[in-house]
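P.,

For your records, the input lines for the assembly:
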Amino acid sequence: MNDKKNLQSPISNPASPAAAAAGCATCPAHNAGNLLKLGVDMTDWDYVIALAGNPNTGKSTVFNALTGLRQHTGNWPGKTVTRAEGGYSYGDQRYKIVDLPGTYSLLSTSLDEEVARDFILFGQPDVTIIVVDATRLERNLNLALQVLEITDRAVICLNLIDEARRHGITVDDRRLARDLGVPVVPTAARQGEGLDALLQAVSEVATGQTICKPHRVKTESPAIQSALQTLTAQIQQAFPEVPNARWVALRLLDGDQRIADAIRSGELGDLKRQEPEAKQDLVIHLEPA
Amino acid sequence: MTTDNLTSNDILKTAESLRWQIGREFHDRLMEDIYTDAARLADRAVTRPDEKPRFDLDRAIDRIVTSRTWGFPMMILLFTLVFWLTITGANYPSQFLASILIDTMVPILHNLANAIGLPWWISGLLIDGMYLATAWVVSVMLPPMAIFFPLFTLLEDFGYLPRVAFNLDNIFHKSGAHGKQALSMMMGFGCNAAGVVATRVIDSPRERLIAIITNNFALCNGRWPTQILIATVFIGGLVPAYLAGIISALAVVGIAVLGVLLSFVVSWSLSRTVLRGEVSTFSLELPPYRPPQVLRTIYTSLIDRTIYVLWRAVMFALPAGAAIWLIANITIGGTSLAEYLINFLNPLGILIGLNGVILLAYVVAIPANEIVIPTVLMLTVLMTGVNGGAGAGVMFNAQSTSDYMSLFTAGGWTLLTAVNLMLFSLIHNPCSTTIYTIYKETGSKKWTAVAALLPLAMGFIITFFVAQIWRLFAG
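C-alpha cells returned:
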C-alpha cells in the first residue's frame, strides 16, 4: 500500500504533507519516504537489528510499525516470549529486525531472558534498539545499562513520550544521550511519532556514521575492579575477536554457567556467525497467515 | 583446538579463583551498581511536575478492579457481559449464514452434481460430507468468534488482564504455583498451545511444569463455541426468552470459572505430591490503562484470532466431514461403520451421562476441538434418522435454537447430557497441537503423557459422578 502514510509523525509534519516535504526534503531525518516495509521478506539483508526492552514498553508496536507486520500487541507484560522477525528497507539498505522478549534484566536464568541475552551476544546484531518507557525511565535504564554492557552499537528508543507528556513528565533526551553515549530518540510508536528519526539514528549507527561510546557501570570495590581487569585481559588474549570481553568477565565472575559453557566449547570464539534458527517457535502464536 | 581449550580452561580456573576472592556478594554488588547508575542517570534527565497527590485515574480504577471485595465480582461481571454480548449478538448472523450456506447452497450443489452426472458416492462425499461439515463450522463458529475475540482483545489492550492475574496471584501462590501462571492461563483462554509456550516466563522448572499441565483448564478458542451453543440451546431454553441470553452467558462463565478453580486444585495437588518445592516470588507490573485503538484491535483480532481459528477448524472439518460421511455410508452386514462404533461407545457414554455419539465426536476431534459440534450434529442426524431430505450422514439444516433442540431431543439428549458435555468439553485431553507443544517444551514423554491423560481421567470421573448424583435425584 502506501508506505509514506503511516510513518509521518505529527510533529515533523505540522501543516500538510506537501509543505513538509518541500521544507524538509534536504533533512535526512525526514526521509521516512524511503522506508519500505518488507513484512516477513528478509532476504539479503544488509544489517540485523535487535529490539530489546522491558516488558510492555511497546517493542512489538515499534516492530509492527517498521515491518508492516501485525504481530499482535497486548497491553500486558510477557506478550512476546519467543523472537519474531521481520524486515524493512530504508535508504538503500535492507534490514532484518528481530523482536526480542521483554525482560527486566539479563542477569537471571529464565528462558525469556536467555533468548534476549543470547541473541544480543551470540546473534551479534548490527544495532540493538533499546526501547525504554519514558514514564518509568529509572527502572527501564537498569536493563538499558545491562544491554550497553554487552554491545556498543545501540540506539535508545525513548518510547511512550506521549504518555509522559500527559503526566507532565519531561525527559531531556539530549542529556540522556550524552550520559549514555548512544543516540536517544523520543518516540510515540503507537502514533508513529519519531519513527523517522529512529530509522535515521539506526542507519547511522549501522553504517558507522555514528560511533557510540556507551556508558559502562563503574564499580566502587577495588577487589572487583582488579579481578575484572585480570579476567578481561585473559579473555581478550584468548578470544581477540570478542568485542565485549569485559562483559564476559563480569558474567564469569557472577558464575554464569551458560557463558562458561560457551568458553569451554569455543562458541565464544566464533561470534561472527549469525544463525537465524529457532523459527519453529514462531509458528504457534505469531502470524497465523 | 587443544591450545584453545587449554586457554579456555585457564580462563575458567582464573574466574573460579577470583570468585573465591571477591566473595559471594558480587551479584548483589553488581545489581546495586547498576541500580545506582540508573537512578542517577534517570534523575538527571527527568523533570517531573510539582508532584501534588492529584487524582490519578489509573489508581482509582485499580482500587476497584483489584480490590479484595470488588475484584472478583467485577471480573465475573465483565466476563458475563462479554459472553452475553456474544450470545445475543451471534444468534441472528448464525441463522443467516446457515440459511445461505446450507439451505440455499446444498440443493444448488446437488443439482449441479446431478447435471454433470457425478456418481452418488462422489457427490455424497464432497457435498454431504466435506462441504456440509465446513458450512456448519462456519455458520456455528464465525459469528460468536467475530464478536467474542475482538471484545476479549479490547479488554486485553485496555490493560485488564494483568489485573486479573493480580487478583488470582494470591490463590496461585497458595496452590504452590507461580503467580505468573495467571498470565500463561490468560494466554490459554485464547489457545492452549500458545499458553504452554507462554509458560517460558516462569523460571523455576517445577512451577513451569505445573503451569503447563494445568493450562488445559483454561477454556480455549476451539471450545468456546461448544460451550456457547450448548448453553444457548439447553440452559437458555430453561428460562423465559428475555432471560435466556443472560442465563446462558452465566452458564458459560460458570464453566470458565470452574476451569480456573480446577487449575488451582490440580496445581495444589501437584505441588503437594509429585512436584513439591518452594514457591518463587516475583514482581508483577500493572501496566497503565491505555485506551485501546478500537478499530485496529478489531481488525487484528479478526485477522489474528477469528480467521486463524476458523481456518484451522475448516482445515480439520474437511477431512473429518469426509471421514464421517464414509463411516456413515460404509456398511457391514446392513449396519454402518458409524453405528458399530457408536453402539460400542454407547455404554461408556451413558455411564458418564453422555452418549456414544459425543464420545466418537471427541475421538474424531482430537486434532481440533473446533469440530466437536459439527461432528456431534452430523452423527446425531445419522443415528436418529432425522434429516434434511438426503441420505445417511447428511447434516440436518438446523437454523434456530428450537431446531437444534428438537434434533438433540430426538438423539435422546437430556439436560444432563448438555451439562456433562459442557463439563467434558472443559475437562478432557488437550488437542494434538497442544500435546505436541507440551512435548516440545518439556522434552519429556512422561510429563506430556501426564498433561494429556490427567485431564481425560478427571473428565471421566467428574462426569461419572455428576451423572450418578443427577440420576439419583432426578430419578
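Two observations worth noting. Residues 1-25, 272-289 of chain A have pLDDT under 50 and may be disordered. Chain A touches chain B through 73 residues (CB under 8 Å).

Regards
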